[in-house]
Write a structure and sequence with these properties.
Chain lengths: 340, 340
DNA sequence: GTGAAAGCGCTAACAT
DNA sequence: ATGTTAGCGCTTTCAC
């Protein structure tokens, strides 16, 4: 079975191969009549254009890169599915780059990998969306990129963004509304800009409510289950322990619940625990977690859409697109216990 | 900044471009001397071969497809990272195809997608590794593929495989050794061959232990948290309820734990619950799950390795490679309660 | 051990 | 509205 090429189709349809190419690329200036002929030739021959040949001739690769760190499987899954949906619809393939952002040779490896694949554009997710050297490198090489969830103050390039500070603020307002005043906060990995934004929201909400901010109630976590356990142990062994703990992601919140259960604290009656991200695990654990849902899939979809516009030299409607987070109340939060 | 091509390098090194090509592809018949010259030309010019041009000329795409359904983020994550590691090391890019295996147009869509990308080979994971029409289609089109975790009886093509029946058998033997006799089983999605294998292991272990197999103790689940809840409700409302429930994956086991907790059953003392897969959630929930760990990452790595050998027409050492699963005992299992 | 010429399957630029 | 020519950057074939 020989491979069918554009020449075979041209012969079969009785036109030049340039005309075939025109039909393939939906260019103007093809009569409806010939278009029909060409399409029927496609069908009867079962023709599939060779993407590598197109790529070479048109100096595009139709390849988009997606760079991410993988602390959370659910985040990765959502970001992939959103980006993929848009890419496939536009005829692009998605190449994934899961990278350990703490690797020393990260930048060199990544740069080599990205360059050698000859990508048309790159989607950067946290914490890569905030790595200035990487951003500068891509700019210099004139490789189009888009940032997802980065810090807007770092770089003026096109970004898709969700307001972490605001979502965190909303969560804390909710906790305050339940009557909590001893609210602890577990930070995310410091390399992620979002971690700092979430802290800002926490502080703002507490200040506005007239609640004193205690340093001992703010613990540094790293987005892992184990770091959540560690922070919980430190928090719950304090003499005047918090009645609510807000963790910067759901895995850390799960760690808190484990430690609390081991200490025979009943959740949510003895202790309110909330998370961030709406990971699948937030539904699987018991009690299920009150958390913040970010529209990650939609954000990735939009990021891919914008990137493809950039690649094709079409103007962007907006350089920054913002998405809204949502508070999801489940079983792990309850009114503060009455003071004894 | 102009793109540098093989011609620039040839000029710079004072050799023909064929020689450059030889060095690029590690072919024989290049003197060490010229090889050195060429490499230094690479460095000083910062040359990166254009993958699309190589692809076109050599009639390869250096693209591997990975097809999977996504019931479990952790499974997807492991399979991706294993396959990716091997692919990148060999100069291949991985294109992901997350597909809903229950979609009516699945086969047509998938076939079109796989063909048009011009992949060199395809990695098939469950339940796609067992879809005979798909396997036949790929064989007919002479697209190399490898199956991961499929049913060996369906197709004689190269496969990477783990013995689900045996792992399930081992888990049940463990439950029996704890003194359980009322052991229930929650099946996985019936489209997955592994689901049936796991049932076989369950039946074998119980029979060997002289335990009667009760139909009411075998429930049909679908690998989702919710299906686990449903099955648990049916199981735990029975008059003579089981003292141990073995779910075919961890998400369903999490569903059991939730339902049990709501019924004030204390795990593991009142009820033993075990899962399968060693998903991250199995550690995050409380009590943590006794489960089966499959070496998914290693299996995917091996699958990619074998596939690339096939693509390159190198002989396979073994057509079928088997991996061993491992029982992981955590907190959710305990000896059977004494009969009252 | 090295090179010249041809060509992979498509698109770009310029006719007509 | 359609065709002609050239060429994308590499590998292949075959010569030396």
């Amino acid at each position: 079975m020989k491979k069918i090429t554009i020449n075979d189709v041209a012969k079969h349809a009785g036109v030049s191969k340039k005309t075939i190419s025109r039909v393939l690329n939906n260019e103007a200036n093809v009569s409806p009549d010939t278009k029909l002929k060409v399409h029927s030739a496609f069908d009867s021959l079962g023709y599939r254009p060779n993407p590598q040949a197109r790529a070479l001739a048109s100096n595009q690769s139709f390849l988009i890169g997606l760079v991410y760190s993988s602390p959370s499987n659910s985040f990765v899954s959502k970001i992939q599915s959103g980006a993929l949906k848009r890419c496939k619809a536009d005829g692009y393939n998605l190449i994934i780059y899961p990278e350990d952002h703490e690797n020393d040779y990260l930048l060199a490896n990544l740069e080599r990998g990205l360059i050698s694949a000859n990508l048309d554009g790159i989607i950067l997710t946290p914490p890569f969306s905030d790595m200035k050297p990487l951003l500068d490198f891509l700019s210099e090489k004139k490789i189009p990129f888009i940032r997802v969830g980065g810090d807007l103050s770092i770089n003026a390039s096109p970004s898709v963004y969700s307001n972490d500070a605001e979502a965190s603020y909303e969560m804390c307002r909710y906790l305050v509304s339940l009557g909590h005043t001893k609210i602890a906060f577990i930070m995310g990995h410091p390399d992620h800009a979002a971690s700092h934004q979430r802290l800002i929201g926490y502080k703002k909400a507490l200040s506005e409510a007239g609640i004193e901010i205690r340093d001992t109630f703010i613990q540094q976590g790293y987005f892992t289950f184990e770091s959540g356990e560690d922070c919980a142990r430190r928090l719950l062994s304090q003499e005047d322990r918090p009645t609510a703990i807000f963790a910067s992601n759901d895995y850390m919140a799960a760690g808190i619940i484990k430690v609390a259960s081991q200490k025979n604290l009943f959740i949510p009656n003895d202790l309110t625990v909330t998370g961030f991200d709406n990971a699948p695990a937030s539904r699987y654990i018991w009690p299920s977690l009150t958390t913040i849902k970010q529209p990650i899939t939609d954000m990735a979809f939009e990021a891919a859409r914008m990137l493809i516009r950039i690649v094709r030299n079409k103007p962007l409607e907006n350089n920054i697109v913002t998405f809204k987070d949502e508070l999801i109340v489940r079983e792990s939060s309850a009114p503060a216990p009455k003071v004894s």
